[in-house]
Predict the structure.
Amino acid sequence: MPKERIAVFDTTLRDGEQSPGCSMNLLEKLRMARQLELLGVDVIEAGFPIASDGDFAAVSAVAAECRTVTVAALCRTSEADVLRAAAALKQAARPRIHTFVATSDLHLEYKLKKTRSEVIEMTRQAVTLARECAEEVEFSAEDATRSDVDYLCEVFAAAIDAGATIINVPDTVGYTMPLEFSRLVQRVREQVVGDRNVTISVHCHDDLGLAVANTLAAIAAGARQVECTINGIGERAGNASLEEITMALKVRADQLPFETAIQTEQLYPTSQLLSSIIACPVQPNKAIVGRNAFAHEAGIHQHGVISNPLCYEIMTPESVGVPANNLVLGKHSGRHALALRYEDLGYAMQPEEVDIVYARFTTLADRKKRIYDQDLIALLQSSTVANESLAAETAEAAAVWARTA
Ligand SMILES: [Zn+2]
């Protein structure tokens, strides 16, 4: 049976870019957008055109440049907002207007100062206008997970009746939990969507570290579009991470039989490009793209573990585009090659440090055919941390050189 498709909606350039320290200029957004297109995302949300002239220009430029993806522009429900988004998308091959309004009583009372029926009317008008400007309209109910569910369903129904074909259920404040969220999505599917040709989307934030888990639970309950960002950047604790969602679907297809169009070998290069543009490094232990994500066999596992990588690898580094150095370094590599490789990685070492690391390297190389940069970095870290074993390591190293010299 063919697997069902999950559409990947990337909001790195909008939700991600608006988080502190992650702003990008026009050329940087364009570079990122081209890479996202290569990565295989279905939708690039390029900005919030009414927010600033810079955002307007960025959405226009991405729309003109990226012809094989849908380009989305965000707007609130006012006429000026919708028209500004439409104008920014004028050159898009596949434009999508993404309009949103809050639906929780908290937001209605304190932020919007509107009644529930006024918000339904705002929704209807915005979606109707957006549909006059673009074939494809997505509607988001901000703070959906803290909204009254019956009211939320009423707003979604109004959006669909006015022409929205994608309805998004955002966990704006990162508050929901997997079981609760899957029930909400299921309720929206049964109560609002039925057999209409409407896609349910989800947009999860990571305030409780649950953004990816909530997204996967929503897929199981019927969501067919996921909103996410590269490296999980975004407001506060960030958005659901694109690389984690797509690899979870790939590695655990037995549990979640869905597919995306993501070229997973482009995940690591995309992550690296974003880090270099926003000068914000990925945490070393970040799943999939962190520096240590594939270094599990090094360091603490060095003594006496079984040599088959399958014991510790649920996916290969190559499958997510992490460069392998197996041609450069293997069990027959010498100390000189090792020191040079470290130099390339930015670690200049004293000869005695090379001695210690080399001993660990040869032990690892005996068990592992391919030594990755991540392994080398972990070797280095374990070498500097485990002081008590340094003397033993040095003795071991001397023995190794005696044998190989
Ligand atoms: Zn968000």
Q: What stands out?
A: The CA atoms of residues 356 and 391 lie 9 Å apart. Residues 296-306, 385-391 have pLDDT under 50 and may be disordered.
